[in-house]
Amino acid sequence: MNTKTGTVEFNVGGETYQTWYKIVGDLKSGKRPLVTLHGGPGMSHIYMISHTEIQALYGIPVIFYDQLGIGNSTHLRHKPSEFWTPELFMDELDNLLVRLGIERDFDLLGHSWGGMLAADYVAQRQPVGLHRLVISSSPPSEQLWEESMRGYLEAFPSGFKEMVLKHEREGTFESPEYKAAIQVFLNKHTCQTVPWPEELVASFVSVEEDPTVSNAM
Length: 217
Known about the structure:
By secondary structure, this protein is an alpha/beta fold. Helix content is 42%, strand content 19%.
């Protein structure tokens, strides 16, 4: 399977950063490429790598990339919360499409936060080269997402629920007890394959290594 990795320059406010990408397949094959937008905000692309099957089965080139601030792209731990906006990531996507020369002919797949980004991107930028949009497991609004999470938490035993809420009130998110409880929650409502696939674990580890984007957004 033909695979290429690299970086493109991304200029923001007079500063130049690097967006890392991986192309699986050949952009000159005549098949329209699929660009993937990973979740988070602030997770790496690794957990989405199973989408290489699309290339293996149908010959469609698949493009993965790490959004700014995470994974193999430029990390910016010193940037304030105001720096991290949906507009920043839409600009980054526009830049990547142009740098790869596919801005006039591409499909887009966004998962979780990536789906929210894709929806904003399509609504606000109306890219002329986009043919198909796939939004996967994305909330229609942050408020409804939070209400759903609270509803899921209500289904757990009362002692478990109160312990989680206590840590959230006190801000003790690094507590081993809280982390263990969140893993139980995620095993039920994020990925029920236990132990988790290595790729998913790696993407969660990327957030722990640099939570800048996740914390800001």
